[in-house]
């Protein structure tokens, strides 16, 4: 659904993208993670057709972004809403721009309003919404036309738990319906909940790509066994076996046992640290 | 333009009109203030020139329609400030649809302001009714376009809302005064008379006065100069709006 090959983009001396490649299949959620300035937003803007690469190729369903706008829904990192327009008017405007009209537009608004829990403030102007309500409204404007490629750039930044859950539920539903989704975030636990595959960006390129199981498999976990007189602390790629071995040789009584599998945070820190090195 | 494109353009015009209607304070100010000034200035012009109503009405019309470039600037500036323009650019709407959707409601506001002030000038200030309605309508359309283009160009170069207000206020006073809105150019110092012809206000004022008098030739000549100002400013603004502000947005 989305194929980006060797994208490069430079702003004066800064290399925003430096050989960025990523492929996203229909129904796949890709969690795009990386430091601020890693190139995530530049990539999203490029796929949206807002900026052009200096070199490289982006194809959305085999077409350049400018010709595939009806296939793409984009929710930018910052809140970008018209303060005097109501939630309903935003959905109607972006639905109309996507080609929806009449009953199809009304149905799409009704469905999204329910899914995103926007019903109670549908006729409130965006300027009077809370931050979470604005986030949900913005995401809804990206989802209104049922895009086959969804670009969600930090959609839950600063959002309350209710907003976050509503967004995650809709993202999972849309992926289940076949949409390809690029989801940039700093909250890695969200990617676990979304069962997303991971792409780690650093310095304008992807430095790791795969399922979380594949990527985490190469990282050591931590085993800690505390006895009355001694403490054992081992890093290992096979925590369970290591724990059993430690328990066999540890002097009794054993006071506590800790077994920590690597998390996405560990993976992220490890990859970015090695890329900096 | 395809049916789909017309539908999208209509949606853009509708919601841009809603945005304007929900923020009417500037327009009200730029309607009420010139109405007061017309009545106050008319005796002054009468003493100075022996006539006065046309000068008072068109002078205030040109000056306060220049102030209304702030409305144009504001309508574009909010797209920068709220970062909504890129959302529109990422939609299916083509650049020309976005620009038409943005321009039409503001153009209507500008023409509406001129129409109200001319009607007021005729009914209250005692200005003679225009000799040629088509010529007057042409003048209003050309002036509306010129202001739309100048206001758009202004909005893309300023760096803050404060800059926009200062630039539109100072610009309106300087350009329209130099052009002869406050007092006839013939009564201005020599250097100001020399500079006057470089001001769009001078040509706008001439266009309206000739149009009201029914002098087609001079009115059309002035309209042509106004169009040149408009096309140049419009081209700069259109280029920038088409390409977005990107990371260089300084708002």
UniProtKB/TrEMBL annotation, chain A:
The keyword Nucleus does not apply. Residues 2-228 form the ABC transporter domain. Keywords: Antibiotic resistance, ATP-binding, Nucleotide-binding, Transport. GO terms for cellular component: plasma membrane. One of its GO terms (biological process) is response to antibiotic. It is a peripheral membrane protein. It is found in: Cell membrane. Its main location: membrane. Pfam families: ABC_tran. The keyword Transport applies. It comes from the Bacteria. One of its GO terms (molecular function) is ATP hydrolysis activity. Gene3D superfamilies: P-loop containing nucleotide triphosphate hydrolases. Belongs to the ABC transporter superfamily. This is ABC transporter ATP-binding protein. It comes from Actinospica durhamensis.
TrEMBL record, chain B:
It is found in: Cell membrane; Membrane. The keyword Phosphoprotein does not apply. Keywords: Antibiotic resistance, Cell membrane, Membrane, Transmembrane, Transmembrane helix, Transport. Its main location: membrane. One of its GO terms (molecular function) is ABC-type transporter activity. One of its GO terms (biological process) is response to antibiotic. It is a multi-pass membrane protein. GO terms for cellular component: ATP-binding cassette (ABC) transporter complex. InterPro entries: ABC2_TM, ABC2_TM_bact-type, ABC_2_transport, Nod_factor_ABC_transporter. The chain crosses the membrane at residues 27-45, 57-78, 99-127, 133-157, 164-183, 219-239. Residues 21-244 form the ABC transmembrane type-2 domain. This is Transport permease protein. It comes from Actinospica durhamensis.
């Amino acid at each position: 659904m989305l194929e980006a090959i060797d994208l490069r983009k430079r702003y004066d001396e800064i290399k925003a993208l430096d050989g960025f490649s990523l492929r996203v299949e229909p129904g796949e959620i890709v969690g795009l993670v990386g430091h601020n300035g890693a190139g995530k937003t530049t990539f999203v803007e490029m796929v949206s057709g807002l900026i052009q690469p200096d070199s490289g190729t982006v194809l959305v369903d085999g077409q350049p972004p400018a010709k595939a706008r009806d296939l793409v829904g984009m929710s930018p990192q910052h809140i970008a809403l018209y303060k005097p327009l109501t939630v309903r008017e935003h959905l109607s405007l972006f639905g109309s721009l996507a080609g929806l009209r009449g009953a199809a537009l009304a149905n799409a608004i009704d469905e999204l309003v329910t899914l995103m829990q926007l019903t109670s403030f549908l006729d409130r102007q965006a300027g009077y919404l809370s931050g979470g309500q604005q986030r949900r409204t913005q995401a809804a404007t990206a989802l209104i036309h049922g895009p086959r490629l969804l670009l969600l750039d930090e959609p839950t930044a600063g959002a309350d738990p209710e907003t976050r859950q509503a967004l995650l539920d809709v993202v999972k539903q849309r992926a289940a319906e076949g949409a390809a989704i690029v989801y940039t975030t700093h909250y890695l636990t969200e990617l676990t909940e979304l069962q997303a595959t991971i792409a780690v960006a650093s310095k304008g390129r992807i430095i790791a790509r795969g399922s979380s199981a594949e990527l985490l498999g190469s990282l050591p976990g931590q085993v800690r066994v505390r006895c009355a007189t001694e403490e054992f602390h081992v890093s290992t790629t096979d925590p369970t076996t290591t724990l059993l071995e430690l328990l066999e040789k540890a002097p009794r009584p054993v006071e506590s046992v800790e077994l920590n599998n690597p998390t996405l945070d560990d993976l992220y820190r490890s990859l970015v640290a090695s890329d900096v090195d | 333009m395809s049916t789909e494109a017309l539908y999208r353009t209509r949606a853009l015009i509708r919601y841009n009109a809603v945005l304007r209607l929900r923020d009417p304070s500037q327009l009200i100010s730029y309607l009420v203030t010139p109405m007061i000034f017309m009545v106050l200035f008319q005796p002054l012009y009468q003493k100075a020139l022996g006539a006065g109503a046309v000068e008072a009405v068109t002078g205030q019309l040109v000056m306060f329609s220049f102030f209304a470039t702030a409305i144009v600037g504001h309508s574009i500036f909010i797209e920068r400030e709220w970062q909504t323009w890129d959302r529109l650019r990422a939609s299916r709407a083509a650049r020309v649809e976005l620009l038409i959707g943005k321009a039409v409601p503001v153009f209507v506001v500008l023409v509406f302001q001129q129409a109200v002030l001319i009607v007021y000038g005729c009914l209250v200030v005692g200005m003679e009714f225009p000799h040629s309605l088509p010529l007057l309508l042409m003048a209003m359309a050309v002036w509306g376009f010129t202001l739309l283009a100048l206001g758009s160009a202004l909005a893309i170069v300023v760096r803050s809302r404060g800059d926009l207000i200062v630039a539109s206020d100072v610009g309106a006073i300087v350009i329209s005064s130099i052009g002869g809105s406050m007092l006839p150019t013939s009564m201005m110092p020599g250097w100001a008379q020399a500079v006057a012809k470089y001001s769009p206000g001078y040509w706008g004022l001439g266009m309206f006065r000739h149009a009201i008098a029914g002098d087609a030739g001079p009115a059309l000549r002035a309209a042509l100069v106004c169009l040149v100002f408009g096309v140049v400013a419009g081209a700069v603004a259109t280029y920038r709006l088409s390409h977005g502000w990107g990371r260089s947005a300084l708002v």
